[in-house]
Amino acid sequence: MLQGTLTPDQMSSIFGSMSVACWLVVYTPQIWENYQLKSGDGLSVAFVVLWLLGDLTGLLGAVMAKLVPTVIVLAIYYTLCDVVLLAQVYYYRQIRLRARRDSISPAARAAATESSPLILPADPNPPPAQPKPLLPPHLLWLEYPLLIAFVLLAGAGAWYLEIQATPDVSIPENPGPGQGGHGSDGVEFEWKSQLLGWSSAVLYFGSRIPQIIHNFRTRCAGLSLALFFFTITGNLTYSASILAPSLDPKYILANASWLAGALLTVFLDIFVMAQFAVYGWQDKKRAQEGKGLQHDEEEDSALAT
């Protein structure tokens, strides 16, 4: 039961539950968007592969550290979601390639030779740039804040229900290395966990770079903005869950790899969101200029008649 002011460990648990809630739904917007567009071309394959390697590193660390089954199950869930994203990318590519092959006439197939190879026609049905929004146009600015607020409240609610169900559960005084505790007591450096932590940090941070480069070509078409809202929120709450118990330098140093992986990734995710904003503004400006040009042409045509 909750009594009085929340302790640092309780605050850490609340932020941790919020982070888990974000990571549980982080893949859903992109998986759904790929399904709507019948295409995964908005994603960089290198982005998903590096993200998958980071999740596999986390899974390995959870198994080696013999963490609670919930953590291991979550790591498996993240890995499976990465696999689903990769499967969508290649599945929809094969579907469109098959459609292009089927559109070739039998005569063209028969005329193809080694010196005159068969050239596939352009994709007759390119995927649309954006799926239908969840809310009406005049309420679109509320879509992402409402989604984030709902998920954060769900995470906090899950923590409260857990506390109510297990009121006698206490947090150990000396948790595992780099996992909590006040001050520097009980905090030690264990090379295996540190190696895995820094490896996952490099993989998560590095995964954003190919996606950013990919966005310069696709202009973020086919990429879910909600994916990055959830990753930013999940990483910020995750970092808060680490820092809430203690700000002792030794404790922070023991957790530096996990903090670096989360906060540096947030920086690049904000860059991706800036790409969304810039390309959206440019597309809107071009659309307005196109309407103005069409209007001028209609006026000139009316005057000429």
TrEMBL record:
It catalyses: L-histidine(out) + L-arginine(in) = L-histidine(in) + L-arginine(out). This is PQ loop repeat-domain-containing protein. The chain crosses the membrane at residues 12-32, 44-65, 71-92, 139-161, 225-244, 256-281. Its main location: membrane. Keywords: Membrane, Transmembrane, Transmembrane helix. InterPro entries: LAAT-1, PQ-loop_rpt. Belongs to the laat-1 family. It is found in: Membrane. The lineage of its organism: Eukaryota, Fungi, Dikarya, Basidiomycota, Agaricomycotina.
